[in-house]
Amino acid sequence: MGFFDKLKAGLKKTSQLLRTDIRDLFKSGEILSEKHLEQFEARLIQTDMGVAATTRIVSDLRQEHLGRTMKVDELWATVRATVKSILKGTSTTTYDPEQPLSPLNFSESRPTVILVAGVNGTGKTTTIAKLARLLTSQGKTVLLAAGDTFRAAAVEQLTLWSQRLGCDIVTKPAGTDPAAVAFAGCEAAVKAGVDVLIIDTAGRLHNQQNLMQELEKIRRVIAKQIPDAPHESLLVIDATTGQNGLNQAQAFSKAVSTTGLILSKLDGTARGGVAVAIRQQMGIPVKYVGVGEAIDDLEVFDPDQFAEALFAE
Amino acid sequence: MFESITQGLQGALTGIFRSGKLTEANIREGLKQVRQALLEADVEYNVATQFIEKVTAEAVGEKVLKSLRPDEQLIGIVHQQLIALMGPTDHSLHLRRDGINKIMMCGLQGAGKTTTCGKLARKLKAEGWKPLLVAADMQRPAAIEQLKTLGQQLDVPVYAEAPGGNPVAVCKNGLAHAKTAGANVVIFDTAGRLHVDDRLMFELEQIDSRVQPDQVYLVCDAMTGQDAVRSAKAFNDALELDGVILTKLDGDTRGGAAISVKQVTGVPIKFVGMGEQLDRLEPFHPDRMAGRILGMGDIVTLFERAQEEFDAEEMERQQQRMLKGRFTLEDFRNQMKQVRRLGSLGDIMKMIPGMGGLLDQFQNIDAEKDMGRIDAIISSMTLEERQNPDRIDRSRRTRIARGSGTDPADVNRLLKDFDNMSSMMQKMSGLGVKDRFRAVQDLAKVGGMNPAAGLQAQKQRSKRGPADADLAAEKKKKARKEAKKQRKKNR
């Protein structure tokens, strides 16, 4: 199954939700009225893309089509164009589905350091395993650092993954300062000369100051060890998250200068719209999406295809 | 936790305050904003729309137009409807003293099922039950270890089999094990699953029919967006839920999911997870939650938590010392420590009625840091200095500043603040709880007008003015009444 199919399957619920109602809503030949727009707005809200993005899409529609006879295809073209332009934003991030590593920012000299953070239960550890798999399958050597020393058995979870993937891992006993793990990870990565070091962190709610400061400290420690590191600071966001995703993006961005998002758990449920809101308001691009529970189910995010899949028939 | 809705509602309703009169037009405008606030808070679209319809039906019409204070009445209606939407509550786990009680937990991945199992086991153990945890999560690597670790921390037995087994069999064996082990409550920790995964949902139904749990709880992440409704409905259809446990409410999520989930499943929200520590499981109170949404604060929870956290004897001792005017820096530091145990200062402020709005003004003041600095300064003093701050002269001050890594000016400021505070505390210690509370609120108001104002900025009564404060208040009240009468006459 290709990327597009998988993503489409993942987003099926969303597009179904949109399409079924929209077919009833927008009928060719009728005149587009405020009432139609209001109903369409409701549907957009239900994708979790938030009031601001919804308002923008609806106002684009209003500007171009209000009071005219509806042509479903043209309406869709407008909606798609708006979503795409929001998702692409102004950044220079490249998305090449043929090159799974294209969104990542690699360092000139080894190792490239990737710091992964997020709130509790978004699937950081699983995502790291998937990312490591993607990197090793592209011929890169990967070292993992098990920085989640807080949650019970988190270290074991990542260790199990490293054994399955056949890559090395740096661990410390539970309760160790995570910055110490990051330090040891950097040291080991330089010594072993690996291509990529991925550092796991414990899940933390973004409004807990001490924990966010701990994250800043991890970042400082890494930067001291390896100049310009971390080269990528990825935030894992659960695709079912609502508008709180924005707060998360803001807080993590402040602490560790987030360079990209990974939208996890996009497989089962209808959502993921919060990525649109985050892109629009924070400018942080989505880099990968988790589209299934298997180890290979991490795909490059492609704004074109995301927008297409969101509204595909 | 719901401060964002609060902001939206307050924004919407201040317009009504200003106009002073409630017309159908302005209530509609206000409620439109309430609706947007609810949507931004992740309340499901249809639920939000229905809610607004209900409030509109209640509010618009004679009842409101006749009332004297329409703004208060509107808040009252919104408040009541919110409570109605999230209630009624039922915190009981419905456990029987005879036989084995079976509790099954289910939910999406990452909702916090395993941690919540631990919290529940801790709560049951504290209530004198003999819980047994059954690790039926065969999906996630190391999920079994996580439950085992929790069991060790809590000293609660855990039944687990080698990973890769059949969860249905594990549950069955776990139940049999409970009988021999003498446990009377069994908690099944099932794997997280997506509600659209038919295979795993079928497995859950199988476990359900095999073990016949007495209670099935859905663990739901409070940060979930619009989809909360659909997943809750799917789990409810498959299993007939008995209750919901909302997790991660200690975050800054607006938590609209609480409203949606309750609405769609119809089962009560039993508990809320307020933190990662295993004792952070609190009963859900819709009235308090609704009160918070409307910026009424949540003083009840604060009192409860204070009662749990504060060392009663220590408090009593300090009160006595305060009364005698023997409040030392040492006591001050102890008290600060106790307050800090309640949570961050921001959290506490949010719970005190009328203080929530102040938070924004204080954003650039890092209270936590200040408290840390004060702690360091006091720690750098000798015991004698702590008891007799007057003895701190210039040379001592320099030494303390050096010892705590602060500026001598900081030390000075602390001593000054302390002086002010101890005199104020002496005054306050003579008041009843209510008056004391009012004094704190007055303090907040003064600070609200001028964030830079310290305690000194509180209005001092002129020396030549009436000596008796009560008398002065009485007089003011009379004057206000007179003025009101005059206004009526002139109309």
UniProtKB/TrEMBL annotation, chain A:
Organism expressing this protein natively: Planctopirus limnophila (strain ATCC 43296 / DSM 3776 / IFAM 1008 / Mu 290) (Planctomyces limnophilus)
Described function: Involved in targeting and insertion of nascent membrane proteins into the cytoplasmic membrane. Acts as a receptor for the complex formed by the signal recognition particle (SRP) and the ribosome-nascent chain (RNC).
Ribosomal protein among keywords: no
Cellular component GO terms held in the UniProt record: cytoplasm; plasma membrane
The keyword Cytoplasm is annotated on this UniProt entry: yes
Gene3D superfamilies cross-referenced by the UniProt entry: P-loop containing nucleotide triphosphate hydrolases, Signal recognition particle SRP54, nucleotide-binding domain
Family to which the UniProt record says this protein belongs: Belongs to the GTP-binding SRP family. FtsY subfamily.
Annotated protein name in UniProt: Signal recognition particle receptor FtsY
CDD domains in the cross-refs: FtsY
Source species taxonomy: Bacteria, Pseudomonadati, Planctomycetota, Planctomycetia, Planctomycetales
Cellular location(s): Cell inner membrane; Cytoplasm; Cell membrane
PANTHER family: SIGNAL RECOGNITION PARTICLE RECEPTOR SUBUNIT ALPHA
GO biological process, one term: SRP-dependent cotranslational protein targeting to membrane
SUPFAM superfamilies registered for this protein in UniProt: Domain of the SRP/SRP receptor G-proteins, P-loop containing nucleoside triphosphate hydrolases
InterPro entries cross-referenced by the UniProt entry: AAA+_ATPase (IPR003593), P-loop_NTPase (IPR027417), Signal_recog_particl_SRP54_hlx (IPR013822), SR_rcpt_FtsY (IPR004390), SRP/SRP_N (IPR036225), SRP54_GTPase_dom (IPR000897), SRP54_N_sf (IPR042101)
Gene Ontology molecular function: any one: GTP binding
Key words, A-Z: Cell inner membrane, Cell membrane, Cytoplasm, GTP-binding, Hydrolase, Membrane, Nucleotide-binding, Receptor
Catalyzed chemical reaction(s): GTP + H2O = GDP + phosphate + H(+)
Quaternary structure and interacting proteins, as annotated: Part of the signal recognition particle protein translocation system, which is composed of SRP and FtsY.
PROSITE patterns the UniProt entry points to: SRP54
Pfam families assigned: SRP54, SRP54_N
Membrane topology designation: Peripheral membrane protein
Residue span(s) of domain SRP54-type proteins GTP-binding: 285-298
Residues given in the record as GTP binding sites: 118-125, 200-204, 264-267
EC numbers for this chain: 3.6.5.4
Automatic annotation (TrEMBL), chain B:
One example of a Gene Ontology biological process annotation: SRP-dependent cotranslational protein targeting to membrane
Its EC number(s): 3.6.5.4
Record: residues binding GTP: 107-114, 189-193, 247-250
Alphabetized InterPro entries for the sequence: AAA+_ATPase, P-loop_NTPase, Signal_recog_part_SRP54_M_sf, Signal_recog_particl_SRP54_hlx, Signal_recog_particle_SRP54_M, SRP, SRP54, SRP54_GTPase_dom
This protein's record includes keyword Nucleotide-binding: yes
Alphabetized SMART domains for the sequence: AAA, SRP54, SRP54_N
Start and end residues of each stretch annotated as Disordered: 450-491
A GO term from the CC aspect: signal recognition particle
GO molecular function, one term: 7S RNA binding
Protein name: Signal recognition particle protein
